[in-house]
Amino acid sequence: MSETAKIKMLLSAWLDYIYLEDLSNASVDAITPLGENIWDKGVSLVGDNFLLSKPLFQKLEKQYFCASTRQNQPETKLALAFPQIYQVSRKQRQFRPLFTIDVSSIFVGKFRSRGWDLTEYNFQPVIPNLMELLQLDEEEVEILVTKEGLKVF
Hints:
By secondary structure, this protein is α+β, with helices and mostly antiparallel strands. The chain has helices at residues 3-23, 54-65, 127-133, 138-142; strands at residues 28-29, 31-32, 35-36, 43-46, 49-52, 79-82, 86-89, 92-95, 99-102, 116-117, 123-125. 29% of the residues lie in helices and 23% in strands. It has a three-stranded antiparallel β-sheet with strand order 1-8-7, with no helix packed on it. Strands 4-5-10 form a three-stranded antiparallel β-sheet. A hairpin with a 2-residue loop joins strand 2 and strand 3.
C-alpha cells in the first residue's frame, strides 16, 4: 500500500472518529447563530420506523444535500437525537439526547412515504447523558443493546 493511500485511510478513520464524537455530544442547542439545529415538526417515530413529512424532506434535501447548494461546503450530516429531553440554559433549550442515529444517507435516495426502518442504522449512545440522566455507570452504558431498535428502550 502506498504512503498516500495509508495517509488517506488514516485521515478517513480520524474523520469518522471525530464524527462519532460529535454524535455523542452531550447537548445540542436548539438554535445557534448559524441557524436552527432541531427539527421536530414533520418528524415522527412509529415503532422502529422514522417518518418524515415530504415538505421537510424536500427542504432538508435542498438546503443540505443538493449538489448545487453545497458548492464549496463541507459534507452535511444529519442525525436523529432522542428522546426529546432538554434543559433550559441561557434562556434557550439545550437538548440532551440519550441516543443519536446518523440518517444522512436517507437524503441520497428518494422520499419514502412509509418511512425508514431505523434498525438498519447504527445507534450511537450519548454516554454522558445516559450516565447522568439514567444514573448508569460507564460499564452499563457500554453493554446496552443498540442493535435491536427502539422497542428495547
